[in-house]
Amino acid sequence: MAEYTAPLKDMSFALKLAGMDDVAALPGYEEASEDLVHAVLEEAGKFAHGVLSPLNWEGDQHGAVLENGVVRTAPGWKDAYKQFAEGGWNGVPFDPEYAGQGLPWTLATACNEMWQSANMSFGLCPMLNQGACEVISHYGTEEQKRTYLEKMVSGEWTGTMNLTEPAAGSDLSQVRTKALRNDDGTYKIIGQKIYITYGDHDMTDNIVHLVLARTPDAPEGVKGISLFIVPKYTVTADGSVGERNDVRCVSLEHKLGIHASPTAVMAYGDDGGATGYLVGEENRGLEYMFMMMNNARLNVGLQGVSIAERAYQKALGYAQERVQSKPVGFKGDKVPTIIAHADVRRMLLTMKAYTEATRALAYYAMAQFDVAERHAEPEVRKAAAERVALLTPVVKAWSTDIGVEVASLGVQVHGGLGFVEETGAAQYYRDARIAPIYEGTNGIQANDLVFRKVARDKGAAAASCIAEMRETVKTAEGDLAYMGEALAEGIDSLQKATDALVGADPVTVAAAAYPYLRLFGTVAGAWMMVKAAVASAKAKAAGEGDPTFHSAKLATARFYITNLLPQHSGHLAAVTAGAGPVMDVTEDEFAVDL
Amino acid sequence: MAEYTAPLKDMSFALKLAGMDDVAALPGYEEASEDLVHAVLEEAGKFAHGVLSPLNWEGDQHGAVLENGVVRTAPGWKDAYKQFAEGGWNGVPFDPEYAGQGLPWTLATACNEMWQSANMSFGLCPMLNQGACEVISHYGTEEQKRTYLEKMVSGEWTGTMNLTEPAAGSDLSQVRTKALRNDDGTYKIIGQKIYITYGDHDMTDNIVHLVLARTPDAPEGVKGISLFIVPKYTVTADGSVGERNDVRCVSLEHKLGIHASPTAVMAYGDDGGATGYLVGEENRGLEYMFMMMNNARLNVGLQGVSIAERAYQKALGYAQERVQSKPVGFKGDKVPTIIAHADVRRMLLTMKAYTEATRALAYYAMAQFDVAERHAEPEVRKAAAERVALLTPVVKAWSTDIGVEVASLGVQVHGGLGFVEETGAAQYYRDARIAPIYEGTNGIQANDLVFRKVARDKGAAAASCIAEMRETVKTAEGDLAYMGEALAEGIDSLQKATDALVGADPVTVAAAAYPYLRLFGTVAGAWMMVKAAVASAKAKAAGEGDPTFHSAKLATARFYITNLLPQHSGHLAAVTAGAGPVMDVTEDEFAVDL
């Protein structure tokens, strides 16, 4: 099976486009020079290609297995994880004070993309660990950082996020896991958590669970949830692994995809209570989680990019090998491979254009995150924070839906062979399907976008983003003028849709949420592609860089603008259709034939 | 797991809309009264619900297995097949002279939809058998009909279609299986066939393979392929099962979905040659196959409808049960189920509207097929044949792509549970994925549409269909006038796209093929929905039928028209973008980062 190759040229280009130079100028990130960025990407690419990618298919077939109460990861997993930790890859964006590399999140994002492309099931472990590290970094005590964070950043231990319960999925206000205060300041944690990614595994000596639970006197709802560190093994005074805590994996889910990523049902306190350590203050757990969740949502959006890239590479490889039928208009003797067929090209270009557009947008959002965290000017930080908040649901939902659609096209390019599991394309189609669901379903992302990010500030953040998009229109001149014009039309649609939402009644806004998000993604993707085309045209004219790369970028941008962007009008129509078509249907009408 | 319920009200309605009354007036179909149609649908629905549906999930998990050279179907399969055959379900559309029921294809189509909805893996066996029966019905000798057809129609034996070889997939001109003439008029068949659905199984005493092969002196290419009957066991003079023929299943594919449908690699002639019997004349095999293939393509299109219906039922059931978060604007005490959430409604309505639109179009196309076969007037037959030829690639490709998209939405409605296999929604997502691939990939369907069905007659067949669509616009009056206006805009897009293709150079046509097909489906679906809305409004006003059904139909049509139809403009833009964006990309540019 063909292994994943990190698309280093496009990644470097997308980083630059996202403002990597500005990020490298932020206080504390001075080390992140162009040379260092390049070296990191190259090393990460080698690791993804040589270590993670070769385990992907076998991991899918083998899966993670629960045996006698212990989760065994797929063959090769443990060793790969050891190498991953030794390479320092867990620590890229974290504080050097606690074993981190102190590099920008933007750069970490490019690395993360590679792990998820090469092996999404594997990549989930560091992804969740990263979220847990972020929470402890921000809200943990110095002692907690020394005890847990350092070992999680170094990769000696891994972290998990325990939010969901059977009755508390999208609605975390329903969390029922109990936290009873002990006299020594610790808590007894009792309850069941589901869908816990890498809730148990055999790759490290310890696992640090972050668990949402309620103290007995906590208020109802979201304001009564606290956050606890619950290690699999308690930690002794000297920092080593101590006694087994009262937490165990009771079963693993049998899933459509990401088979090698154990998705655990976790039982806390079956023997009286697992020992938990409060993070921050009581009743503020959800607030802490949400801080981390924004970043996690960008990372899940990135998984959409990753799986799209992988599916594209696979489909391209097949299209370059397979010979079948003469293409229309072909006159020669030697029948070319199917990449010469117009419809195969249409599929490949759709895959390529969406992959590059979602990548550019995800990197851009993460660069804004770095700016929001570190810029010297409060005004600049605020604007960047607003931008990243606006784009987070778009990156999460648009990219992951695109991931599914691109993976589906990847199957199609292979014809009958695409449906045969050994080919590998089907795995991407299965794996991709989780990303629109977890870390807040895409419907929830759409609601987040329209209510919290657009309606709440009366469209101000959207207007600022739209204004910046219009600046890009002006830069598309000469041969690229048609791109600017098409982008302007897309922006007009986005503007109209935004105007329609601001001030509308909440039910109307809710009904329009998903098409609005899709419209936003489609236009923001075009914005990125036009920016890219302008940069590539300039570089090409100046004789800078790889001319084939730049002409490829111009070709992909062209396809996006002429063949994909025009969908904006359909999405706008759905946004402005109002609540009626969605809400004026009775339950009896839905079920009239059942 | 919730079982499938045949949507009898919508099926009856769609049959009527498709012109079932006219079909029942065709010579030979007089028996197909409204009462009989109703009785057949009711019985088929019971069988699908009670016998086929309960086997679907276990069949998926168990799969078909090759053991010691014999394929064993999943538990319960053999008995279900016996009941299916005894019920006469194989024979619905076939000649009573050969064990058939002599009923219209249109009615058989509604039954077929049920088999595929209830259990797609099971339904494939009768679907392929039906194709084989059609071929022998048309081109077999009287003796072949008595020997094979009768038992295939009765269900005592099953039939298979053996077209594909490793180097001959989409391009059947590459068929290399050999047929050597014996002195007694039979042939020795030697070669390998792949992707043979139910190529072997344990449900019947014999299997009748229809095999494409080449005689030694046959011309190269498509005009040198002959068609043979190759029974698994040769048949004795008295019609009973004789000796084992030299054909066997050498392996089964490990597939993404339809696990319980054995997809076989078949070896012919490993011991010197399988005995084959020529169908019709030598070198005309592909022509015979194509005759059957049109019908088979409609049936595969129908599978898209079937899986969409099943996915909808499943998602609706979950949405009516699951409680999670208060919907926007909800003020009451008891939090309703998630069907009250706007975005869940959007997903369910998208599923419902597409299911009903694709169903209506598939039934309509099949009714035109019946008219084309049986109408007394040659002119009417010709027009109907032209219409069914035009719509066949649309029904096949549009419905099956919709099937995948609807199944994906079905997973999404379930949230995390959708990704857990035991829920069942994931199976539809996996099963659905084959339909855009087999029986001519959707890319091939798109080429068939633009070249053979539109460009070849200079748009005449399309123009005739468009003219009829415009008649429907006129009938949308009063409250429904907005639907007529929106449909008219869609038709204008289709008209412009058609004009752009007629007379264009072939490469431009090929590049526009898929978006044109998608545009055609979107507009034809709207045509059907507006027809349906007009009929329902009339019936409601007249107090006829179930008022909830009619108001549901009006609601679904409204959603289709306001929220889905507007995509036509995006598709039109892709059609008129020309060949450049697709063709002006070098292979180096595709692979610039690999």
From TrEMBL, chains A, B:
Which top EC class applies here?
Answer: oxidoreductase
* Keyword Oxidoreductase tagged: yes
Out of the domains of life, which is the source?
Bacteria
Ranges for domain Acyl-CoA dehydrogenase/oxidase C-terminal come to: 283-449
The residues covered by the Acyl-CoA dehydrogenase/oxidase N-terminal domain are: 78-156
Where does the Acyl-CoA oxidase/dehydrogenase middle domain lie? 161-263
Which cofactor does this sequence's record say it needs? FAD
Q: What is its EC number?
A: 1.3.99.41
Q: Which InterPro entries match?
A: Acyl-CoA_dh-like_C_dom (IPR025878), Acyl-CoA_Oxase/DH_mid-dom (IPR006091), Acyl-CoA_Oxase/DH_mid-dom_sf (IPR046373), AcylCo_DH-like_C (IPR036250), AcylCo_DH/oxidase_C (IPR009075), AcylCoA_DH/ox_N (IPR013786), AcylCoA_DH/ox_N_sf (IPR037069), AcylCoA_DH/oxidase_NM_dom_sf (IPR009100)
Q: What are the TM regions of this chain, as residue ranges?
A: none
Q: Which reaction does it catalyse?
A: 3-(methylsulfanyl)propanoyl-CoA + oxidized [electron-transfer flavoprotein] + H(+) = 3-(methylsulfanyl)acryloyl-CoA + reduced [electron-transfer flavoprotein]
Report whether Repressor shows up as a keyword of the record.
no
**Pfam family, any one:** Acyl-CoA_dh_1
Q: Which family does it belong to?
A: Belongs to the acyl-CoA dehydrogenase family.
Q: What does this protein do?
A: Involved in the assimilation of dimethylsulphoniopropionate (DMSP), an important compound in the fixation of carbon in marine phytoplankton, by mediating the conversion of 3-(methylthio)propanoyl-CoA (MMPA-CoA) to 3-(methylthio)acryloyl-CoA (MTA-CoA).
Q: This protein is called what?
A: 3-methylmercaptopropionyl-CoA dehydrogenase
